[in-house]
Amino acid sequence: IMDPYVPPEGDARLTSLSKDGVKQQMQKLRQTAASQLAWNLCGGKSGICVGGKMEFVWEEKVEFLWGKVGICVGGSFNKQKLHSLVTEHCYPDMVRGNRYKTIRWRFVESLEPPRVVHVRCESILNRGNLYGQVTVRMHSRQILAIYDRFGRLMYGGEEIPKDVLEYVVFERYLVNPYGTWRMHGKIIPEWAPPKDPIIKTVMIPGPAPDPSQEHE
């Protein structure tokens, strides 16, 4: 992730009337200006205009793409489909440790509209090889449950939804006119609360063998 976005501490909990909330608003203005400049440098090849009408249309598409990634991982796993939705950098993180597990994921509702908070464009190897990265703040309510290969719950649950605040990075190879935006990673702030621990499951021991019933 080029020039990672630094989420403000207390995001989604501070009001715009508090002292820290005012500081966040000022920081947001500076970041928006830098993001607009970065997007102007890359020629606006994706149709995003930070702070304009095109931004909201693009954010709806990103939310749809993000939901498709969750369904692909938490539903019927499709390797080829997932490769078309995430980058090569993100794919190992999406599938690592998922073998022999059952993942149930469901999007419940969006608590706040997704918002573009960071835009960067840089050249790789040569000046004409442009890549664009956009960080989108997504505040939603989700359901996630992970079961082991024996069907026992390891993480989360399917009954109680949880509020999730995420900063998702999407990337596109801007030189290719037919290129699409794909999920590239997530930014986890240092002040984020720790995740719930994984419930470790063990094999249930069987009955002790009876020596009198042993046979060759």
Which structural traits does this protein have?
216 residues; alpha+beta; Nuclear Transport Factor 2, Chain: A; four-stranded antiparallel beta sheet; 4 strands; elongated
Describe the structure.
With 216 residues, the protein is of the alpha+beta class. It has one domain (21-187): Nuclear Transport Factor 2, Chain: A (Roll), CATH 3.10.450. Helix content is 26%, strand content 31%. It has helices spanning 19-41, 53-74, 79-85, 91-95, and strands at residues 102-123, 130-147, 153-173, 182-186. A four-stranded antiparallel sheet has the order 1-2-3-4. Strand 1 and strand 2 (130-147) form a beta hairpin. Residues 49-56 have low confidence and may be disordered. It comes from Hypocryptadius cinnamomeus. Component of the mitochondrial large ribosomal subunit (mt-LSU). Within the mitochondrial ribosomes, required to direct the nascent polypeptide toward the tunnel exit and position the exit at a distance from the membrane surface. Its main location: mitochondrion.
